[in-house]
Amino acid sequence: MYGREKRFGDPNWKRRLGYSLLGELHIPGRLRAWHVIKTLRSLGYWRDMPSALLDAGGGKGAFAYYFARRFPQWQVVVADDDREALARGRKIQTALRLERLALREVDLNTIEDCAVFDVAICADVLEHIEEDAMVVRNLARALKPGGVVVVTSPSVPQPWHLPLVRWREKRIGFDPSDYGHVRDGYCAADLRRLFSEAGLETRTIRQTFGRPGTLMFDLFFATGDSSPNPVIYLLLFPLYMALAGLDSILSTECGAAILAVGVKPRE
Q1: Mean pLDDT of 51-72
Q2: Who's near 53: CB < 8 A, 6+ residues apart?
Q3: Which of 208, 197, 9, 217 lies closest to 98 in space, CA to CA?
Q4: Among 151, 112, 109, which Cα is nearest to 132's?
Q5: Which of 80, 105, 202, 221 could disulfide-pair with 59, CB 3.0 to 4.6 Å?
Q6: Which among 209, 225, 230, 236 is positioned nearest to 169, based on CA atoms?
Q7: Under the phi-then-psi rule, with left for phi > 0, alpha for psi from -120 to 50, and beta for the rest, what region is 264?
Q8: 247/173: higher pLDDT
């Protein structure tokens, strides 16, 4: 079950129980990972073989730990500057004996690896970083020839959201900048430009979080986001998962998020 690994790193017993029973509790993050997994499947990387994957800025998420457990032949590296998140990751690593998982405290602006990785994942990270072009260049340099980078981000412009979202933002005094964003997100042209400047070829760009996913996100946020009432969360969990499941299998031309794949040329 995706996200159960996080139960070993969380200090809160209620969340540990939730991870054990339900997997990843943050359903938008779960859906984002499903779209990344779908992409890796389509590229032929979702299988156990001696390869190397970099999860850039993924210390707080479940993806790297899930991937390392599922495919123990892969060398998986988490690169992040969040010490608390990395400390939790080390607890997960120890509990699951993930021998080929490495956790590195590093600023993505200073990654110096060269031709090391087959896959680099940068999931909802670039919108938090001023020097996004430098980060993409660093990721491109870290890839082996023929390797791929998968980037996800909020898309711009955003589609219509439920009025409930704005209501809760006003109620709790929330602003999207509270997420630590330095920009609202990216459009397809933005990501093509970043890839091109880094010497990457754009393989594919598609919208995610279409109507089902956006509805799930809006309801999830409006009912508490990462700190919901447990009863309300459990009652709505089947709906969250059904909407996320629909979004993972449907294509969309207009979504709240975007996913792009860049390829490092072999020559």
Answers
A1: 94
A2: 64, 67, 74, 75, 76, 77, 117, 118, 119, 120, 121
A3: 9
A4: 109
A5: 80
A6: 225
A7: beta
A8: 247
Which domains, and CATH codes, for the chain? Answer: 4-263 (3.40.50.150)
Mapped onto helix, strand or coil, the DSSP state of residue 115 is coil
Evaluate if pTM is beyond 0.90: yes
Per-residue pLDDT tens digits for 82-125: 999 999 999 999 999 999 999 999 999 999 899 999 999 999 99
CB 261 within 8 Å of CB 38? no
**pLDDT tens digits along 210-247:** 999 999 999 999 999 888 999 999 999 999 999 999 99
Evaluate if residue 179 carries a pLDDT over 80. no
CB distance 60 to 86 below 8 Å: no
**Of the candidates 250, 255, 245, the residue with the CA atom closest to the CA atom of residue 207:** 255
